[in-house]
Amino acid sequence: MSGSNPSLWLLVAAVAATQFTAVFAQSLTEASATIPPTQLSAPRPQPTSEQLADALMMHQRYQAAIEAYKKAPSDSPSVWNKMGIAYQLMFNLDDAARCYQASLKIDPRNATVLNNLGTVFDSLKEYGAAERMYRRALQVDPNSALVEKNLGTSLLAQHKYKKGWEVYKAALALDPNIFKHNSGVTVDHPGSIQERGAMNYYLAKGCVRAGMNSEAIDYLRMAVNEGFTNSKKIAADGEFAALRGIPAFQQLLGSESTP
Predict the structure, then answer these.
(1) What is the sign, positive or negative, of the torsion defined by CA atoms of 113, 114, 120, 123?
(2) Which pLDDT band, with edges at 50, 70 and 90, does 24 fall under?
(3) 37: Cα within 13 Å, side-chain hemisphere
(4) What is the pLDDT of residue 48?
(5) Domain 6-143 class?
(6) What backbone torsions phi and psi does residue 175 show, to the nearest 5 degrees?
(7) Measured between alpha carbons, how far apart are the two ends of the chain, in Å?
(8) C-alpha to C-alpha distance for 197 and 220, rounded to whole angstroms
(9) Which residue, among 221, 115, 125, has the nearest Cα to 171 in the 3D structure?
């Protein structure tokens, strides 16, 4: 696989780091809750290699976490998946893909891992492979708004705007708040200015449907600045009718009055 521009991975890194913090904090809390009261004063057992790696991930010590995961049982699909995300957070896409593929050899129907591998292929601009991963993930978990969102983003990056927007609408139907939160590894914006403009335009549509009017206007502003659209086209697009009474939207269109 070819390399990737690290700047495209800022959002992926932030999302994955948030995911790990939430998941591992919950895991550590649940582990503490399982200790009987009579054993609280007794010496606690040593953490496993996976538990140690999880704690290192929470502190963003990714390389140290990888070394700890390597000492964990190699037949665990979860360990391979976590190691893949650690590599992904270090922008090492080749090793991330290798770990995800190792996880899938053990558990081929893991929608989370299929999604994660799809994001790697997207970042490498291997869109056909990425789309196959997302569609496989949806076969396993057809109600995953996150996978639908990632698939839609991938299609938009390929200039398949109509298909991408249809998939975005499917994601919103599953979770109206999918644009408000990040619950897993997601696809970052594509590299070229024109592609980013298209992405921002359709993200604005998604935000309007989710009731995120302020965010929608921000995305529209970026789409205009990137040359994908203009105020006349935005004013004519019925999808943005809900924004017409907002001063910031009127200002974006270059008028103080509602179009």
Answers:
(1) negative
(2) very low
(3) 0
(4) 93
(5) mainly alpha
(6) -150, 100
(7) 49
(8) 9
(9) 115
